[in-house]
Each structure stands twice: as structure tokens, then as C-alpha cells.
Amino acid sequence: MALFEPGIGYVDIAAGQLKGATNRYVKTFRDLEGLYEDAEAFAAVVAARGDEVAYEVTDYKPSANAGDIIIGVTRMEPGKVGREYHMTRGHIHARPNRPEMYYGESGLGVMLLESPAGDIRTVEIGPKAICYVPPFWIHRSVNVGSEPLVMTFAYPADSGQDYDVIAKAGGMKSRIVDDGRGGWKAIDNTAYLTRPQALVDSIMARLD
Ligand SMILES: O=P(O)(O)OC[C@H]1O[C@H](O)[C@H](O)[C@@H](O)[C@@H]1O
Ligand SMILES: [Fe+2]
Predict the structure, then answer these.
(1) What is the pLDDT of residues 157-196, one digit of tens each?
(2) What atom of ligand 1 comes closest to residue 140's alpha carbon?
(3) What residues bind Fe cation, as annotated (predicted)?
(4) How far is the CA of 160 from the centre of ligand 1 (A)?
(5) 39-56, pLDDT tens digit by residue?
(6) CATH number at residue 76
(7) Is the beta carbon of 25 within 6 A of some atom in ligand 1?
(8) Residue 17's Cα: distance from chain center in Å?
């Protein structure tokens, strides 16, 4: 096995970027069609700022080899679509037993997690908080603050991302919305379809 060289990156909190990253991944508001409950409010956001960056990921990816690691920074714009706070698309890892960690740099976020069977967890992430995303949990970041949300993350390099698991269920089971008092609350996604038990079993059985 050939050796890789050590690497270094710098977290630029103000820019919300990893300086020295090897990859950049950007989603504009226009890219997020179908995510939000309020289609009219979404259309208004797209009309006003469709080409602006809703969230950005800069990461250091030495390889996609088993046993290697991807380290990066994500930056999310603050704001809401209707009553719903800005969020990432969300995914389960394509190799679902791979975990992830997130470290809060600035702003206030919620990690919304859903098990394949539809159990929901929410974890608030402020500066210096470390969030453990366990294997097999679908996860999505939500910016519930009034400032950009910046988080550092790391996960196994061969994890991959599967977006279909959310799309086929009509979204995640919960939505993170304004609670009317400047905070957030989780409410039911009325379009959610519970996964068939056979699908849940097949996800949970994957250990490769
Ligand atoms: O992949 P999305 O759900 O669009 O989220 C964007 C990004 O979020 C996190 O920061 C992950 O670690 C990235 O690998 C992911 O690509
Ligand atoms: Fe992930």
C-alpha cells in the first residue's frame, strides 16, 4: 500500500470555507426544488434569489478508499422558506453503516436525524458542540439561527450519499419550522410515507 502525504487545511469561519480544500460543492436555492412544504414561498425565494448559494461544502478528500477520511466545512445561509428553516437536501450514507461527526463553528443549527423505520431525533449544534451522527441514520442540517451556520465535519471516505431514501418517502418525517417565538420546533411532514419493513430490513442488514 502506497503512503499518502499528511495534509492541512484552515477553517475560515467568516467565509464558511475550508481553505486548502480539494473539492467544493454548492447548492443554489433553485437546486432545492421539492424540499420545502410551501411551494409558493419557495417559488418566491427562487424568483428573488434563485442563483444565490443556499449552502456550500468545501472538503479535503484524500481518496475514496475504505479506511480513509473526508474532512470539510459546510456553510448554510440563514433564513426560512415560509415557516420552514433553511436546510440541506439530506441523505443516508450509500454505505449506510458509516457514521459522521459535525463540529459547530458559528451560528445555530439543528441536525435532524431519522432512522430507516422513521424514528426522529434532533440535536442542536452551536459553537464548539460536537454532534455524532451514528451509522444508519438519515441526516439533514438545518440553520435555525439568524447568522450563517458553519460546521466542520468528518466521515469515512467510502460512505457515499444516497438521496433517494428521502425522496421516495416524500421527505423526512419531520420538518423544522419557526415556533413563533424566535425558536424552532419539529412538526410532522404530512406527505411522509413510512418505508416498507422489507426496505428497512435491507438497509439495516447492509454491513459492507
Ligand atoms: O449532501 P447534502 O445533503 O446536500 O448535504 C451537503 C453536505 O453535508 C455535509 O456537510 C456532508 O458531510 C457532505 O458530505 C454533504 O455533501
Ligand atoms: Fe453524511
Answers:
(1) 999 999 999 999 999 999 999 999 999 999 999 999 999 9
(2) 3
(3) 91, 93, 100, 139
(4) 10
(5) 999 999 999 999 999 999
(6) 2.60.120.10
(7) yes
(8) 16
